[in-house]
Design a protein that fits this description.
CATH architecture: Orthogonal Bundle
Radius of gyration: 16 Å
Shape: globular
Oligomer: single chain
CATH topology: Arc Repressor Mutant, subunit A
């Protein structure tokens, strides 16, 4: 059994061939990817299969969805041990205005934000926008 298969099974996801391929594709990327990126990489696969796989991964906390302000949802693999919990697993994202790539800055955690009584936090998303290190030449 491969590491990917073990990871999927640990998240109660049956490791089908397509799920393994999509997981591997996401693991090889250093940036967050949109559904259209995955569709391009797997042109012969049905769009609904790809979408359902991403949604299953999201529900099982294998990937997290990123709203980087472009209007296109992007996805990235969660860190090992991540449960996508607001009080401990949230990190910054950086969106480059030049190359349009979004990356997870997992080493930069978002501090816990206390909301007023009666408010319930369901999602926190902090995106820094600017020019990435590749585009800035630094």
């Amino acid at each position: 059994m491969t590491e990917i298969e073990k990871t999927l099974e640990n998240h109660q996801v049956r490791p089908t061939a397509m799920r393994i391929l999509i997981y591997k594709y996401l693991a090889e990327k250093e940036i967050a990817v949109a559904l259209t990126d995955i569709e391009s990489a797997f042109a012969k696969a049905e769009r609904t299969t790809l979408y359902r796989t991403l949604k299953t991964f999201e529900e099982k906390k294998i990937v997290h969805q990123i709203d980087d302000g472009t209007g296109i949802s992007k996805y990235a693999l969660c860190e090992s041990g991540c449960n996508c919990e607001i009080d401990q697993d949230l990190h910054l994202h950086f969106h480059c205005n030049n190359c349009n790539e979004t990356v997870c800055l997992t080493e930069h955690k978002i501090p816990q934000i206390k909301v007023p009584d009666g408010f319930v936090s369901e999602n926190v998303n902090l995106v820094v926008k600017g020019i990435c290190d590749k585009c800035s030449g630094q």
